[in-house]
Amino acid sequence: MVLYQYLNTTFYTMQELLDVANISEQELKALQDSQLMPRASYTLNVNLGCDSFFGQFKENHILTFYAKGYASWLNVILEEQDQTKIYALFSARYRKTLTRLGHLGYVSSHPKLTTSLSNHIADEWQHFLDGTYGLCTQTGLPEDIAAKEFAIIKINELCQLKTLNQAERETLIFAVNLLDSVSAQFAPHERANSSRRRLVDEVRTKYRLAAESISLSALLI
Fold first, then answer.
1. DSSP string of 184-206?
2. Which phi and psi (to 5°) does residue 158 adopt?
3. pLDDT for 221
4. How far, in Å, CA of 170 to CA of 164, rounded?
5. pTM of the model
6. Where does the chain have alpha helices with state H?
7. 50 - beta bridge partners?
8. Spatial distance between the Cα atoms of 17 and 65, rounded to a whole number of angstroms
9. How many CB atoms lie within 10 A of CB 101?
10. b vs e for 156-190, b when ≥16 Cβ sit within 10 Å of the residue's Cβ?
11. Residue 163 in contact with residue 117, Cβ under 8 Å?
12. Which residues of the chain are under the pLDDT cut of 50?
């Protein structure tokens, strides 16, 4: 039941998403088939058994769960259903996040974020459509995805150094706090193997870093 409580609290069921967006299940499936809308991040197969005065009763339900941020994405794609334009919007929002981080002084020379950025975003788009980022980020949206990828790359770069100077340590603190702010909590059975455990919890412990809340939306203004 802990898993169900996490999913039910953190995500929209498909029916909740349909209600919020005011669309039908058939319309949602059509948008997914058209490579515009992400698929569910979690699928729960629920087998119910009941024993009462009237005897035993069993039924099965398949429940799907979507990141709550997908409601805003639906608002976008319901207005514009051209895949090329929608992908261009995803790419632009991803790039804008990296550009804003760069303006704040946080950059990386990793090929994924420089010479191979276009190919990297194309890969990210596929993970987005698969529902992967609905599982591992707070919103599942391009801004969180870009911030998460930047933070992971930056943390790994800095943790490979034998020693950190003050500027590098401050950058590490920012990257860890950024990752913390955009990462999902993960389902209970996933947490021990999650990027949050390895790159937030363990890095904070190793480097004795203080936790500080970061608002990505405030950074992007």
1. ----TTTGGGSHHIIIIIHHHHH
2. -70, -35
3. 78
4. 9
5. 0.93
6. 2-10, 14-21, 25-33, 70-79, 83-103, 117-130, 132-136, 142-159, 166-182, 195-196, 202-207, 216-219
7. 57
8. 9
9. 24
10. ebbbeeeeeeeeeeebbbbbbbbbbbbbbebbeeb
11. no
12. none
Res 61: pLDDT: 84
Q: How far is CA 90 from CA 70, 129, 139, 164, in A?
A: 13, 11, 14, 35
Pull the structure tokens for residue 97: 């996040």
CB 189 within 8 A of CB 44: no
Residue 22 Ramachandran class (φ > 0 left, ψ -120 to 50 alpha, else beta) = left
d(CA 70, CA 202): 30
Mapping DSSP to helix (H, G, I), strand (E, B) and coil, where does residue 4 land?
helix
Rounded Cα gap, residues 16 and 19, in angstroms: 5
pLDDT, position 47: 84
Cα torsion through 210, 171, 110, 132, rounded to 10: 30
